[in-house]
């Protein structure tokens, strides 16, 4: 009898799964059919899934859907649709999927990036990041960004071969300085290493999400470091087992203890230096003041986690975008030349570009916009959004609890907005053929969309309530570095003929160019001397950031 009941229950459960799958496939946005129970898991490649997503958007429409296991997943392939759903309906589409390992176990739900937007802590976290990084506030970081870019120029001039490490150090030091009011000489410093170790452990879970753990873009050392880790994402009931039976907790909980210790140490360090007046204005010092004034409500440990978020989000994205810029310049020397003509005309050789030159360097700005468009680093648009209510769009049903990928790779290659998307063409951001003094004739602007022009281009930074809070800081890092590199160097491939492949990118959540060689040749003696002179000048200032 027991056996029969069990069989009947199992058969009923299987049938329920098949019917649910069948029904969802009929009413959700079009997409590949897949199979009952596993959905489309087997069809999502482990290698560069964003390319498959783009194909599906082309085949089934700019909003298409798949099922990752039982999780409905929406793939958005154009900016218009991303704005429609993630911005106009942001009250529904600004949440995150549930992250059991990465958020609940590893950090007791303290990492804002993974929190649902309904969480009070998430609101406080966004407020705190806004207060630290809004468009006017980021001007306080101009000083350190300028200093670090001078360090970078000197390193690139002396040791071109290791340029990639220097870009990463630059990006890391900006993040540490803007967050904790101190700079770093190397990415091997404790503060960077520990933060990266902690993020490395959580990233595979963030990417794969609940029950959708099928495509994984991480090297085996990371991916397999937690045996049986995905089971709990698919079967949350495992959390009801007695703690001692929850084998998947062990490594994560020991990492959590380590995280709590070092994040509290960093917070206390800022508190001490703020008290004795030696801490430059930074996100953490601002957050402590805001908390004291009741503007932000967080405990110490919540605050310590909250301020650490720029590590996971701000280093790879900035350094990776700078690599893309170099890759583009090596592939399009005529564009390098045109940008240098503009800089020579506006700045000359006697000084470096400064932040206040930005408005007078439209072509350089267009190069930066096009770099962010041509090969976006967060190819999948960052961490998936999730919906918190049933919805209908263009006649299709989007169930509550869907994961939403605004597939940045496909969005930036939408031919309606960006004709010839594979070409690096900064002119698409210039309003009219304006620059008549250059030798190259500008091509007419290819888009008239109000959100895609020189001054306004926030598309690479995501959507709605989840839009990147570090956007202005990131853009300033890009401007000061790109303009000064163009001012200072002729960029050359290692050997004259070996132009790096513009399509060779890594298979990571933040997909970066595969390593390539680049030579940084000072454009003239004046420039080389100025880089040396600035290097000497800044030594005292660098020390101020080393307390
Ligand atoms: C070129 C540089 C950067 C690019 C291209 C970039 C891009 C993005 C994108 C696409 C998202 C996802 C938004 C969404 O979910 O809709 C994001 C989120 C985020 N970014 Fe950035 N980012 C950059 C630099 C930075 C920097 C420098 C910081 C910090 C100082 C930062 C902090 C964050 C945070 C905390 C989130 C999560 C927001 C949330 O979950 O509510 N980013 N970024």
UniProtKB/TrEMBL annotation:
This protein's UniProt keywords: Heme, Iron, Metal-binding, Monooxygenase, Oxidoreductase
Cofactor(s) this protein requires: heme
Keyword Ion transport tagged: no
Cited InterPro entries: Cyt_P450 (IPR001128), Cyt_P450_CS (IPR017972), Cyt_P450_E_grp-I (IPR002401), Cyt_P450_sf (IPR036396), Cytochrome_P450_fung (IPR050364)
Composition bias type Low complexity, residue spans: 431-447
Pathway: Secondary metabolite biosynthesis
Chain residues that bind heme: 468
GO molecular function: heme binding; iron ion binding; monooxygenase activity; oxidoreductase activity, acting on paired donors, with incorporation or reduction of molecular oxygen
Classification via SUPFAM superfamilies: Cytochrome P450
Domain of life where this protein originates: Eukaryota
Chain segments carrying region Disordered: 428-447
Cross-referenced PANTHER family: CYTOCHROME P450 98A3, P450, PUTATIVE (EUROFUNG)-RELATED-RELATED
Family from the record: Belongs to the cytochrome P450 family.
Name assigned to this protein: Cytochrome P450
Originating organism: Leucocoprinus leucothites
């Amino acid at each position: 009898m027991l056996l029969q009941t069990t069989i009947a229950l199992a058969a009923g459960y299987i049938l329920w799964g098949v019917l649910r799958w069948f029904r969802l496939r009929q009413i959700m946005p079009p997409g590949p059919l897949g199979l009952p129970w596993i959905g489309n898991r087997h069809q999502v490649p482990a290698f560069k899934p964003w390319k498959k997503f783009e194909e599906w958007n082309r085949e089934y429409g700019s909003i298409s859907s798949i099922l990752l296991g039982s999780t409905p997943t929406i793939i958005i392939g154009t900016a218009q649709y991303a704005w429609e759903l993630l911005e106009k309906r942001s009250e529904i589409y600004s949440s995150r999927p549930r992250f059991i390992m990465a958020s609940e176990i590893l950090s007791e739900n303290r990492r804002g990036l993974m929190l649902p937007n309904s969480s009070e802590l998430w609101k406080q976290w966004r407020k705190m990041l806004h207060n630290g990084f809004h468009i006017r506030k980021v001007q306080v970081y101009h000083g350190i960004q300028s200093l670090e870019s001078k360090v970078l120029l000197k390193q690139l001039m002396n040791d071109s071969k290791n340029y990639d490490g220097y870009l990463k150090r630059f990006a890391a030091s900006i993040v540490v300085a803007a967050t904790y009011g101190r700079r770093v000489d190397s990415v091997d410093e404790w503060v960077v290493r520990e933060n990266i170790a902690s993020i490395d452990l959580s990233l595979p879970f963030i990417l794969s999400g609940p029950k959708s753990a099928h495509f994984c873009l991480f090297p085996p050392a990371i991916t397999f470091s937690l045996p049986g880790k995905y089971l709990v994402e698919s079967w949350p009931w495992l959390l009801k087992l007695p703690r001692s039976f929850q084998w998947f907790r062990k490594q994560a909980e020991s990492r959590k203890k380590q995280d709590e210790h070092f994040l509290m140490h960093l917070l206390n360090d800022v508190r001490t230096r703020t008290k004795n007046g030696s801490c430059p204005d930074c996100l953490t010092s601002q957050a402590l003041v805001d908390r004291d004034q009741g503007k932000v409500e967080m405990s110490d440990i919540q605050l310590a986690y909250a301020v650490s978020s720029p590590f996971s989000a701000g280093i790879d994205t900035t350094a990776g975008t700078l690599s893309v810029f170099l890759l583009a310049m090596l592939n399009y020397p005529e564009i390098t030349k045109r940008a240098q003509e503009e800089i020579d005309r506006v700045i000359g050789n006697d000084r470096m570009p400064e932040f206040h030159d930005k408005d007078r360097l439209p072509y350089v700005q267009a190069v930066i916009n096009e770099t962010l468009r041509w090969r976006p680093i967060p190819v999948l648009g960052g961490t998936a959004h999730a919906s918190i209510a049933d919805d209908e769009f263009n006649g299709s049903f989007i169930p509550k609890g869907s994961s939403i990928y605004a597939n940045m790779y496909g969005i930036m290659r939408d031919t309606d907005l960006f004709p010839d998307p594979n070409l690096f063409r900064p002119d698409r951001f210039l309003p009219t053929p304006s620059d008549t003094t250059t030798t190259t004739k500008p091509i007419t602007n290819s888009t008239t969309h109000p959100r895609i022009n020189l001054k306004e281009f926030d598309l690479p930074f995501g959507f709605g309530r989840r839009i990147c809070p570090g956007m202005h800081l990131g853009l300033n890092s890009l401007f000061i570095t790109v303009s000064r590199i163009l001012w200072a160097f002729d960029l050359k491939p290692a050997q004259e003929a070996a132009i790096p492949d513009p399509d060779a990118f890594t298979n990571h959540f933040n997909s970066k160019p595969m390593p390539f060689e680049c030579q940084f040749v000072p454009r003239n003696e004046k420039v080389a001397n100025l880089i040396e002179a600035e290097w000497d000048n800044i030594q005292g200032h660098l020390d101020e950031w080393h307390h």
